[in-house]
UniProtKB/TrEMBL annotation:
GO terms for molecular function: S-adenosylmethionine-dependent methyltransferase activity. Keywords: Methyltransferase, Transferase. InterPro entries: Methyltransf_11, SAM-dependent_MTases_sf, Thiol_S-MT. This is Methyltransferase type 11. The lineage of its organism: Bacteria, Bacillati, Actinomycetota, Actinomycetes, Kitasatosporales. It comes from Streptomyces monashensis.
């Protein structure tokens, strides 16, 4: 039976409340699956996963239908109330059990070392405190557990990175639900103590004009295994 904690239970007021952005994202993200080629990228993000998975900032649940059957359970944390409701709908259509729960990346409402994998998909741009969020991801993964990430961040030439920094200091986070365009997800993961596996830079979309959000990265990182006792 599938657990759905967010539907009827009373929850504390959400730490993330972006109703306008949530409506915008709910509409645009579905279109972006085709227009930006995101559907295929999500397939690659999730391919080969198995066991217990936690997805951070799951949005409207666009990844859910793409989890491989070898995944035993997904706990999908989403703080924004409207997106969480849409995620609950998407969870019903998934081929694996998906439990949608309220909560924020900076204080994940789950036990330590309980997950084989964590999925970060277009979310490090939006969390308030990246270092804290990644420390939480590290806490909830078992030693050797993997992080699958699809993120966007700093990229392009000098003009583009200057534009990205300016946008981050001014209108972008206000207009787009706390999103930042000049963050550096790979450096943040390394700084949080993850071992970086293979990753590749990609443009979203691959063809056409470059936007401040176009500089993507798709890859794997691991929580290091504990050192062998001497
Ligand atoms: C650009 S959307 C991406 C949604 C989804 N992961 C996807 O791939 O389509 C960013 C998501 O991060 C969520 N978010 C924002 N702040 C967060 C936080 N502190 N902790 C967890 N999620 C957060 C937003 O509510 C939103 O669902």
């Amino acid at each position: 039976m599938r657990l759905m904690s967010a539907g009827s239970a009373k929850v504390a007021p959400s730490p993330v409340h972006h109703p306008l952005f949530a409506r915008f994202y709910a509409r645009c993200s579905v279109d972006a699956e085709r227009r930006l080629g995101l559907a295929a990228v999500r397939e690659r993000l999730l391919a080969g996963l198995s066991g217990r998975v936690i997805e951070i900032g799951a949005g409207n649940g666009l990844n859910f239908a793409r989890y491989p059957a070898a995944v035993a359970e997904v706990v999908a944390v989403e703080p924004e109330p409207l997106l969480r409701r849409l995620a609950l709908d998407a969870a019903q259509r998934a081929q694996v059990p998906v439990d949608v729960v309220p909560g924020a990346a900076e204080a994940l409402p789950v036990k330590s070392e309980a997950y084989d994998a964590a999925v970060l998909s277009l979310v490090l741009c939006s969390v308030r405190d990246v270092a804290r969020a990644l420390a939480e991801v590290r806490r909830v993964l078992r030693p050797g557990g993997e992080v699958r990430f699809l993120e966007h961040g700093r990229g392009g030439g000098r003009m583009m990175t200057m534009t990205q920094r300016t946008l981050d200091r001014t209108v972008w986070p206000v207009l787009f639900g706390g999103c930042h365009v000049a963050r550096e997800p790979v450096a943040e993961l390394r700084g949080a103590g993850f071992e970086l596996g293979p990753y590749r830079r990609l443009l979203l979309p691959e063809q056409g004009p470059k936007l401040p959000t176009s500089y993507g990265v798709l890859g794997v990182a691991w929580r290091p295994r504990e050192p062998e006792p001497r």
